[in-house]
Amino acid sequence: MTAEIPSFTLNDGTKMPSIGLGCWMGTPGGGERVYNMCLSAIKAGYRHFDTAAGYGNEVQVGNAIRDSGIPRNEIYLTTKLGNLDHGRVKEAFEESLKNLNTEYIDMYLMHWPQARKPNGEQAGGYAVFRPNESPTFVETWKDMEKLLDGGKVKSIGVSNFSIKNLEILLPHCTVNPATNQVELHPCLPQNDLKAYCESKRIILTAYSPLGQPASPDQPVSLFNNDIVKKLASKLNVDVAQVLISWGAQRKTVVIPKTENKQRMTSNITLVKLSPEDMKILDDLHLQPGMHCTLCFNAKVDSGRLNGWTLEELGFPEHLYRTKS
Ligand SMILES: NC(=O)c1ccc[n+]([C@@H]2O[C@H](COP(=O)([O-])OP(=O)(O)OC[C@H]3O[C@@H](n4cnc5c(N)ncnc54)[C@H](OP(=O)(O)O)[C@@H]3O)[C@@H](O)[C@H]2O)c1
C-alpha cells in the first residue's frame, strides 16, 4: 500500500494528480462544512480539489486552500463553467477566479454540453437550448480556448461528453480538451469512451467513483456487492480503496468526495491490484443488472437529463432507468 499519489501528464504537457477530493456536497453550498473538509483533506495529503460554479462553494474551497499555508503551485484546482453561463464564458470564468480568490485555475471544464436558458422549465428539468441552437457547445468551447491566452487557466476540458458529442466538438478544436470528466466506476466503466478518448490523448476523470453510496434512489450498491467486498477483504482494505485504486490503475483520474477524516486518509491510500484483481472489477458490469448509472436513475425525467434527451447527450439509454 502507498500514500504516494501518482500524477498523469495531460495532452497539454501539464500534470494532474490522479486522486482529488470531490467537493459536491449533494446540494449546492455546504458553507463551513466544505471549508473544514478541504482544510482537513490538505492536512491528510490531498493536493487536488474538484469544485464547480454550480456547487456554490468555490469561496470555501478557495479559503481553505489559502488558509492551509500550502503554496498555491502545489495545489491542483479544477472548477467548471455552469450551464447558465455558456453565453458568457469570460465573465463566468472571472467570477470563479474571484470566488476562489486565486491567481489562476489549473483546469476549467465545461460542466455539461447543454446550455441552460436563463428562465423557464420544460419537461425533464430546466429549459435548455437544443444542440443546434446558439450557444452551442462548439461556440462555448471556442470561448474557453480564448481563456488560455490570458494565462489565468492552465488547462481546459469538458465534462459529461459522450463519443457522439466529442465527434462533433473535436474537428472544431484548436486545443483539444485535456480531460473529459464523466460518471465512472465498475458499474459504468466507460470502456468505449475511454478507448476513444485515449486515442485522442484525452484522459478521463472519474466522477462518483464510489457510486454515491448514500444515494437513496440507488438500487445497486458497490458497497453491498459480494464480489467487491470479497476482493477488499482479500486485500485487507476497504471497498472504497479497491474502487479508487482500480480507477487510478487504469489511468483515470479519480475524485471521491468525503468529509470523514478517516475515509479521507484511506481513500488516498492506494492498493496495488494484480491483473486478476483488476479483471474482477473490469468484469463486474457484466453481472446481471450491474451495468448502469449509479447517479442518475431518479433524475432521468421524460427521457431527459438536465434538459437534453439521452440521445442528444449520446448516453446509452439502456444504462439509465427513466422516471415514469
Ligand atoms: N462533472 C459532473 O457532472 C459531476 C457529477 C457528480 C460528481 N462530480 C464530482 O465528483 C465528485 C465525487 O462524486 P460524488 O460526490 O457524486 O460521489 P462519490 O465520491 O462516489 O461518493 C461520495 C459519497 O461517498 C461517501 N464516502 C466517501 N468515501 C467513503 C468511504 N471510504 N466509505 C464509505 N463511504 C464513503 C461520502 O460520504 P462521507 O462524506 O460521509 O464520507 C459521500 O456520501 C463530486 O464531489 C464532484 O466533485 C462531478
UniProtKB/TrEMBL annotation:
Superkingdom of this protein's organism: Eukaryota
InterPro entries: AKR, Aldo/ket_reductase_CS, NAD(P)_OxRdtase_dom_sf, NADP_OxRdtase_dom
GO MF, any single term: oxidoreductase activity, acting on the CH-OH group of donors, NAD or NADP as acceptor
Record keywords, A-Z: NADP, Oxidoreductase
Record carries keyword Oxidoreductase: yes
CDD domains associated with the record: AKR_AKR1-5-like
Binding site for substrate: H111
Start and end residues of each NADP-dependent oxidoreductase domain: 19-284
One Pfam family cited in the UniProt record for this chain: Aldo_ket_red
Keyword NADP: yes
Coiled-coil ranges (or none): none
Marked site (Lowers pKa of active site Tyr) residue numbers: K80
Location of the active site: Y55 (proton donor)
Similarity comment text for this entry: Belongs to the aldo/keto reductase family.
Name of this protein: Unplaced genomic scaffold GYMLUscaffold_24, whole genome shotgun sequence
Lineage of the species this protein comes from: Eukaryota, Fungi, Dikarya, Basidiomycota, Agaricomycotina
